[in-house]
Amino acid sequence: MASMFSRFFKFGSQNIAIDLGTANTLVYVQDRGIVLNEPSVVAIETINGIKKVKAVGDDAKMMMGKTPDNIEAIRPMRDGVIADIEVAEEMIKHFIRKVQGRKSVMRYPEIVICVPSGSTSVERRAIRDAASNAGASQVFLILEPMAAAIGADMPVTEPVGSMVVDIGGGTTEVAVLSLRGLAYTTSVRVGGDKMDEAIVSYVRRHHNLLIGEATAERIKKDYGIATIPADGGETIHIKGRDLVNGVPKEITISQANVAEALSEPIGAIVEGVRIALENTAPELAADIVDQGIVLTGGGALIRGLDEHLREETGLPVSVAEDPLSCVALGTGRAMEDPIYRGVLMTA
């Protein structure tokens, strides 16, 4: 084990840590920090029956919902794990080439990738194979809640219980951590994507208007709120296709409507936190009363979510300083800092 890690850290400058997220992929290069943050989207073009990659990341995201018949914008990650291994490989290859630039690299990097705590051995093998086929000389895995906690500067190496709730695009990871390990963890397959779907469904059900994923995501980011505002909140203008007569149409909804749409996915996240607290050992639970709960991931940016969780649990709840980057930062630190070596797993 010692020789394995010494070899891993020997050529640190070229090693890469990847937060392979359902919505976004962040890449951390040793000694350089986070150098890439792009959507986990690949546009595939089919010409005469032959498929080839047309765009990856930001360029591919702009094409979603707007492509001609011969181009398909694919999200290869679903619920935090690989749904399409071939497309995921192409995406990882593209991002590795992008961060390495035009330098001639004598050896391929060793890669650390985070995985959801609830992922199966088959799902983890798919991630390992995708990274290996993309050119990694060796692949290490780190559990997502552990990476999030390290990135949020939580005391994961100390004999103190602390709780992290990482709300990503595909999953919400709830974990109690102590002494470089997970004392309890649960992975709720609800995240930003389910919130987008809830908004699409609400607008279709109540207004007979069909909107796209990109519109729903924009509404969530700009107007998403965890509790229904007493005054109804801001008004929102939405454009989409009228399902009754099939023509484009604009409607107006309130922020209270968005809160109502988000109530189900947010309720599932709160339930996940409750279950974790019920299953936590008494001594660790006592520490959580003092330490509180830390929210990370893009979902932590939903307005009022920390206050809503505080009301539901009676515990102090705070949002990490940079919730979107916590998992990538933690994955990178686990790769760089020998104090965290024990949290890495061979795939």
UniProtKB/TrEMBL annotation:
Annotated Pfam families: MreB_Mbl
GO BP, one annotated term: cell morphogenesis
Key word Transmembrane present: no
N-terminal signal peptide: none
Intracellular or extracellular location(s): Cytoplasm
InterPro entries tied to this protein: ATPase_NBD (IPR043129), MreB (IPR004753), MreB_MamK-like (IPR056546)
Coiled-coil regions, chain positions: none
Residues binding ATP: 22-24, 169-171, 217-220, 298-301
An example molecular function term from Gene Ontology annotations: ATP binding
Alphabetical UniProt keywords: ATP-binding, Cell shape, Cytoplasm, Nucleotide-binding
UniProt GO cellular component terms: cytoplasm
SUPFAM superfamilies: Actin-like ATPase domain (SSF53067)
Annotated PANTHER family: CELL SHAPE-DETERMINING PROTEIN MREB
Subunit annotation: Forms polymers.
Function: Forms membrane-associated dynamic filaments that are essential for cell shape determination. Acts by regulating cell wall synthesis and cell elongation, and thus cell shape. A feedback loop between cell geometry and MreB localization may maintain elongated cell shape by targeting cell wall growth to regions of negative cell wall curvature.
NCBIfam families, per database record: mreB, PRK13927.1
Family: Belongs to the FtsA/MreB family.
Name this protein carries in UniProt: Cell shape-determining protein MreB
Gene (UniProt): mreB
